[in-house]
Amino acid sequence: VSIAAHELRSPLTSILGYLEMLLEGDMGPLNPDQTEALTITQRGAQRLLSITNSLLDLTRIESGQIDLILTPVSLAMVVEMVVHELQPQIQQKNQHLTLDIPPDLPPVLVDQTRAMQIIGNLLSNASKYTQPGGKITVRLSPAEEEGFLQLAVADTGIGIAPEDQHHLFDRFFRAKNVYQTDATGTGLGLHITRSLVELHGGRIWFQSELNKGSTFYVTFPLAEDPPSA
């Protein structure tokens, strides 16, 4: 799987690069039909690259080959960076996003790239499985566990049925009701997210009610009091 994913990623990266050049007009002007066709192609290539990266992460995690570069980081800054990246997706569905971030929170000890991946997956899922016009809230607060900061991502989306909740972090698992939406997925995102959280020494859990929404919680270790190895 790892070799196949590597072989797929290189040509996909090249394809996306050329598509971006075409869409920006670097190779000449485009008519509306050409722009639409290239945009659809770009989305498909981005989707394939996302799946490829997930497969690579899965194989690295299962073989113990992920090395975290831990540095003191403002979790509020990481949240804001992720929100900026996902703002088009949220705005496209006319969803209402609220950030509840107190000032002067202490820094956390994380791999910033992986922290962005964790938060990005949770926020992307919240948007993906919440109806247009729905509400999403991202909240930071001190965790009940000493030495940790807590992230909560809440939504008013489709929720998760009780019989699916025990399997939600299993690899390749997708809840039955997601097929009632047009949301796509591989069933790897939450499995990888949990693995990355645990590699940081944190915890992830959720509360959910079918047709009412879900809240996912993650704890990150504080930089001033990192967990012992």
State the secondary-structure class: alpha+beta
The CATH topology of the largest domain: Heat Shock Protein 90
Outline:
globular
> Which CATH first-tier class of the largest domain would you pick?
Alpha Beta
Q: Could you tell me how far the N terminus lies from the C terminus, measured between alpha carbons in angstroms? A: 30 Å
Total strands: 7
Portion in helices: 40-55%
CATH architecture of the largest domain: 2-Layer Sandwich
Helix count equals 6
Query: Order of strands across the widest beta sheet?
Result: 2-4-5-7-6
Q: Unreliable segments (pLDDT under 50, ≥5 consecutive)?
A: none
Largest sheet: 5 strands, mixed
**Measured on Cα atoms, how large is the radius of gyration?**
19 Å
Query: Per DSSP, what share of the residues sits in E-state strands of 2 or more residues?
Result: 15-25%
Q: Which homologous superfamily in CATH is the superfamily of the largest domain?
A: Histidine kinase-like ATPase, C-terminal domain
Write down the secondary-structure element order. Answer: HHEHEEHEEHHEE
Domain module count: 2
